[in-house]
Design brief:
Blueprint lengths: L5 E10 L2 E11 L4 E5 L6 H8 L10 E3 L2 E2 L5 H6 L2 E4 L11 H9 L9 H7 L16 H13 L5 E5 L7 H14 L5 E5 L3 H6 L3 E6 L2 E7 L5 H9 L2
Parallel strand pairs: 3-8, 3-9, 6-7, 7-8
Antiparallel strand pairs: 1-2, 1-4, 4-5, 9-10
Helix pairs in contact: 3-5, 5-6
This protein binds adenosine-5'-triphosphate.
């Protein structure tokens, strides 16, 4: 049997009395890209946050390479090779581009990523390297957020809203860079509002509707009607 990657097993999540996730199960194999889709408020961010230790989860509810990691603190999860590109970038505003990148590498995991490798992937960042991250365009800020996550040399990259708020040209560029971002056997969960792009960029998909998995399968096989029903419940 091949080595398991990520397994999410009947995960629930709550904010106080409000239940955001119900009984969510899915897996991500090594090297696989899984698109996580669903309408606003479906629970996508909560699911990613639970996986990377930013939202409470029972120990056995999240397994990584055969080890139960649910509820571990976020810094411990990063050390295990799981990093998040958060919705809204969340760069450190008082730090420069390069300082943001270097912070991502602080964890000390070995691998192919370095500041130079990030600049090779996103050359536009070179001339901005000493600029405050807040002075960048939205697309460049997303590049820094991706670069910062890559600097930890992850084996599983969680990308929350890859293209949200970016112009069509920038989105095209980011997607062109995707094979260079998710490379070398890395796996990824890709949250993306643009369902067509999400499906075209992934091997499998999971659709959430009001906190539940409404549909999952191979991205290349699914019909528009099935997606529409799973997405909106219509
Ligand atoms: P979006 O695309 O809008 O980011 P999402 O699919 O990522 O949506 P979540 O952000 O995970 O969804 O939110 C799932 C549900 O949990 C929503 O109903 C949301 O209002 C609720 N929620 C999220 N964060 C909190 C919070 N901090 N406190 C209370 N409820 C929250």
């Amino acid at each position: 049997m091949s080595e398991p990657g990520l397994v999410v097993d009947r995960l629930d999540a709550r904010y106080g009395d409000f239940q955001a996730l119900y009984d969510v199960s899915f897996s991500v194999a090594p090297g696989e890209i899984v698109a996580l889709i669903g309408a606003n408020g479906a629970g996508k961010s909560t699911l990613l946050r639970a996986i990377c230790g930013l939202h409470p989860a029972g120990r056995d509810k999240i397994q990584w390479r055969g080890t139960a990691i649910g509820g571990r603190p976020a810094n411990a999860v990063v050390k295990l090779g799981i990093t998040l590109v958060p919705e809204g970038r969340r760069l450190f505003p008082s730090l420069s581009v390069e300082e943001n990148l270097l912070l991502g590498g602080n964890i000390g995991r070995k691998g192919p990523w370095s500041v130079k490798a990030v600049y090779d992937l996103f050359p536009a960042l070179i001339e901005k390297r000493h600029a405050p991250s807040t002075s960048l365009s939205g697309g460049q800020q997303q590049q820094v957020a991706i670069g910062r996550a890559l600097m930890a040399n992850p084996d599983l990259l969680l990308i929350d809203e890859l293209s949200l708020g970016l112009s069509p040209i920038v989105i095209k560029d980011i997607y062109k860079a995707l094979p260079g971002i998710i490379s070398g056997g890395m796996s990824a969960i890709l949250v993306e509002q643009d369902v067509n792009r999400a499906l075209a960029s992934s091997r499998r998909f999971v659709c959430l509707q009001e906190g539940r998995v409404s549909l999952a399968g191979l991205s290349g096989d699914v019909s528009r009607d099935a997606i529409s029903h799973a997405y909106f419940g219509t």
